[in-house]
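Quality-control log, excerpt.
Job 1 of 2 completed; input and output follow.
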Amino acid sequence: MPNKKIILLVEDNPDDVDLTLRAFKRSPIPTEIVVTRDGVEALDYLFMRGAFAQREAGLPQVVLLDLKLPKVDGLEVLHQIRAHPSTRLLPVVMLTSSNEQEDLLKSYNRGANSYIRKPVDFNKFMESVQQLGIYWLMMNQNPPNAGS
């Protein structure tokens, strides 16, 4: 998709997926959201294996990563992203409902670029997601080959 920027949303909660997709749909930024619903699926997408072995090459502009995921949790996904040369510079935003200090510290220690707690309020959630998109897709400058 020319001119469209890709975001990888890694989220197992269908309500949070729907809200996030709605927020980006309202955004003026042309965006393609790829949704994966567990850690294994997210890693398969990023490393072009399994069901994603034939997808078009390239990385998303940013990964929005939930902490609590089935199969492989968000911290392990983050660890594997940072461990691989092709993805180690990829921007990763932890987007989670956890307000545990330990989760925040572990996320940053493993290389998260940002940690955002999901607002409970619908309007605040919508606004937060739109601001995320504006920052990571329009303002942030990714290193070469990260998110391209």
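Job 2 of 2 completed; input and output follow.
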Amino acid sequence: MKVLQILPELHAGGVECSVLEIARHLVQQGHEALVVSHGGRLVAGLEAFGARHIAMPVHRKRLSSVFQVARLRRLLALERPDLLHLHSRVPGWIGWLAWRKLPPATRPRLVSTVHGFYSVNAYSAVMMRGERVIAVSECIRNYIEQNFPRTPVAAIRVVRNGVNPADYPRGYQPGADWIAGWQRDYPQCVGKRLLLLPGRITRLKGHPDFLRLIAALAATDPQVHGLIVGDLHPRKRAYRKELERLTTRLGLAPHLTFLKHRADLREIMAVSALVYSLSTQPESFGRTTLEALALGRPVVGYDHGGVGELLGQLFPAGRVPLGNEAALATVSRKLLADPVWPAPVPASLTLAVMLRHTLDVYHELLAAARA
């Protein structure tokens, strides 16, 4: 097979990780993997394992992006991929508009993955136009069926994201060199009970709730130290300033550390007492939540969306009603005082199963085309 995946950029995030995992698996299985995006820090890794990256400005949420349709159509005609896989709405529109004008007998089969609880409108509906529509969780499948009723139920396939147990082994602890470097670079964290909020610096990730939680816990437990780890997009600098002002107002400077994007998030999760998922809008799946649970780390999260689905299955003790900051503090204090460990991750939530099911969707479409 030759599979072309398209997404906005390749910097960091759950969608980007999924695209890389699929591309790597395709190459390992002897197929050809192409990825179209505006580029980013993950391109080098993509190309290192044998996939091809084609840079196109398919990331801008503006009308001028339609000028990329003809360019992508020429690329599809030149490369003749067997499948076109859409992973986001702007590139989804570009991909769909390019695809639909190709001769039906020779154009690639069309797959789309719904990675989020998209707004219910015509703009989002393009992600339901794949010949197969992949939902990354059961709650996303339900969302599609309830809010995009024109999507044929027979076209939807649930393919839950998965974790590689070899990369996130239960009970993992970082090596001595990493520990020494961490203690050298962040002496304020030495001997503290670390509470970690991973995720991009955006409003929906619940940073203000986390800051107020750290303030409440630190008032009675000076050993508590909060960590915020996440990528900062240039357009989010004003929001970061808001968080810094709230940190100052709450007197959190001795109890909180902001870190940027980190390649060693696994190690940071492994040394944290608690990991949090506090998105105010439901997450479609909760990849970081699953990674932390796989390591055996307790996760405290708002009980909605994909995170609520994962916690209900693997760690019910960590569920908190959405926006209930009093319950958030109560659950955190309870787990710090009397730790409870998550259930082992089942085979159904492993990366191998996710990749096998994704390729099953590809093969199903190609078999239908041959028939």
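Post-run check on job 2. The chain has a mean pLDDT of 95.
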